[in-house]
Amino acid sequence: MESFELNILGCGAAIPTTKHYLTSQIISLKNKLYMIDCGEGTQLQFRKMKLNFRRLEHIFISHLHGDHCLGLPGLISTFGLLGRTSDLYIHAQSDAEKIFRPILDHFCREIPYKVIFNSFSPFKKELIFENRSLSVHTIPLKHRIPTVGFLFEEKAKSPHIIREMIEFHQVPVKQINRIKAGEDFITEAGDLIPNKVFVRPADPSVRYAYCSDTAYFENIIPIIKDIDLLYHESTFTDKDIKRAKETFHSSAAQAAMIAKQANVKKLVLGHFSARYPDESVLLEEARTIFPDTILASEYLKLKI
Length: 304
Ligand SMILES: [Zn+2]
Ligand SMILES: [Zn+2]
Hints:
By secondary structure, the chain is an alpha/beta fold. Helix content is about 25%, strand content about 25%. The chain has two domains: about 5-155 and about 205-304, 4-Layer Sandwich (Metallo-beta-lactamase, Chain A); about 160-200, no CATH class.
């Protein structure tokens, strides 16, 4: 629970099928959960994956197509029935509140907690959330309606303390945080022990980007440069590129080209059209361009 983990709840496009649920993901970090998109069926998947709803305080909605947000009223209503009392924040473009508030006023009138909408502009990159563990920026995408992706960046971590050296130099407990912050230590005899004696370098901070739904869009490359993991939609194969263009979606090859140009470490393909009974065609197409690619699937947990 401490480290950055991506949970896939659903990765199908447009309609739920017997194979795929609609889009939703959970990032788990330091005992808190962050949801990205909430298609129909998300609350079921949430329970099946044994995620603790009390740890979820923030939901990020990419755009207002039904396959990404129609699970919200049911989820919010169920949380009420389960006795949630803490506030729930929904980060979305401003139309989301206009659409969902009347629905919540009708179906969720008696829930014992507040739903707070935090609206942002879908047209520019913006910092929309920050706490001690991470920050979230929007990534404007190219879709039929205003859409953003999200860049999750873990905050810089503290270096690892070398316990043996702390004991050896008899560093008082109350000084340990100062050593973590980079200070040297002065012994009672007045000797200066440099900071590097007490610490090993911190683990690198994780950067993850979610980009769905979108047509091929090179503008996102500078925003996602060198990140650890990219989830990019690949609704179609290159054979159906005409359909991809008409609907402002991407092919697997296009997702891979974005991953390659952005020099990301790993690519996860998702948002699969129901037209491909065997999704290995998408995987193979992407891997010819960007070998370190995997397919998303329901219940997949990726520790980064
Ligand atoms: Zn979609
Ligand atoms: Zn869409």
